[in-house]
Amino acid sequence: MRAQLMRRTLLSLVLGLLFLSTLAMGSCLDNYQELLGQLQKQADFMQHTSMLLDHYISIQGLDKDGLKEHCQERPGVFPSKDALQRLSRQEFLQILNNTLGHVLHRLRTLQKDIPKAQDLEKLNIAKLNIRGFKNNIHCMAQLLPGSLEKTEPTPTGPGASPSPTPISDAFQRRLEGCRFLHGYHRFMHSVGQVFREWGQSPSRSRRHSPRRGLRKGTHRTHLSSRNKRLMPRGWLPR
Predict the structure, then answer these.
(1) Residues of the signal sequence (predicted)?
(2) Contact 194/137 with Cβ under 8 angstroms?
(3) Are 207 and 145 in contact (CB under 8 A)?
(4) Alpha carbons 205 and 51: distance in angstroms, whole number
């Protein structure tokens, strides 16, 4: 009974995220806070190991004989939370976009080691979610000053390294896939935390503030009559 309830809850969450992804692929929201909320929800959802890693461990037989203990993120493959926090918002979106492009490429590679069609369901859902998330990243970039170019830049920086050299041993290949997915979920957890910080300090600096707000001329309208009276004589509002 409890297992059925958990499956229903998981299914509802998946359908909810897919709904967000479908909306994101259709058009861009022009509301900064609403789009940021979508990005936070997507990142928070995609961090859960039940979405991908746990399933991969099970179907690859890595949940036996203590093998799961060796499934740890390999340092340097994904950017750390500290590295992400040091980036400007535009740089963060660019690194995030490039990294997720790399993840999609690796998922296609991992797919070759999953022969059964029924075992590919979660991987295909993960790919769809990533594409929807990337579309929302593109939309958010358009709301910030100094938006990203329409064409994706050449991958640079942490998390955008080329695919590793192919490994001949099947077991080592499965283990590397497990480590990669462990890093992916940890990375998405860090991404969600960064987006949450955006919501806590939406006006951290002028260059980080949403372009939509600047287009509306918000800080012209913030001058109250009291502030105007405090202006020295001879100074006129521009």
Answers:
(1) 1-26
(2) no
(3) yes
(4) 36
